[in-house]
Amino acid sequence: MTKQAIQTIHAPEAIGPYSQAIRVDHFLFLSGQIGINPETKKVVEGGVEPQTHQIVKYIKAILAKAGSDINRVVKVTVFLKDMSNFKLVNSIYAQNFSEPYPARSAVAVKELPLAVDIEIEAVAVI
């Protein structure tokens, strides 16, 4: 097994002891991404919608750095602070992923880092 950390300046640096993503052979495991501005490290204002759009940009940037793309994502996990935002997040998700859609879980959580409204992690093939 070969394990390689993936890091791009086009997504926020890890705010703890973890990597943006880890490549293991032909799989890429992306850490949960949150909607923060990578320059200011402040939460993107406006709630779950702009945060979700920002997260998708980060996911795409990390995938590109690893030589993959959003069409090669096979599993997504969505963590929502408020499940009433599920329909809105689902519509943004559908704008960015295409059929066959990745396997996905969506769960409500009590809190997320930096009090964001959403966090998304993914697994992709390279």
The termini sit apart by 15 Å
CATH class: Alpha Beta
Helicity level? 10-25%
Examine the secondary-structure arrangement and name the CATH architecture.
Answer: 2-Layer Sandwich
Q: What letter string, H or E per element, gives the SSE order?
A: EEEHEHEE
Q: In order across it, which strands form the biggest sheet? A: 1-2-3-6-4-5
User: Number of domains in the coordinates?
Assistant: 1
Structure summary, number of beta strands: 6
Q: In terms of structural class, how would the helical and strand content be classed?
A: alpha+beta
Please mark out the parts with pLDDT under 50 across 5 or more consecutive residues, or reply none: none
- Main sheet summary: 6 strands, mixed
Polypeptide structure, described:
The protein has 126 residues and is α+β, with helices and mostly antiparallel strands. It has one domain: 2-Layer Sandwich (60s Ribosomal Protein L30, Chain: A). The chain has two helices and six strands; from the N terminus they run βββαβαββ. The chain has a six-stranded mixed β-sheet with strand order 1-2-3-6-4-5, with helices on one face. A hairpin with a 2-residue loop joins strand 2 and strand 3. It is globular and about 40 Å long. 29% of the residues are buried. The mean pLDDT is 95.
List the defining traits of the structure above.
single chain, 60s Ribosomal Protein L30, Chain: A, 126 residues, 6 strands, 2 helices, 23% helix, alpha+beta
Task: Please write out the topology.
Layout: E1 3-6, E2 21-24, E3 27-34, H1 48-65, E4 73-80, H2 86-96, E5 103-108, E6 118-125
Parallel strand pairs: 4-5
Antiparallel strand pairs: 1-2, 2-3, 3-6, 4-6
Helix pairs in contact: 1-2
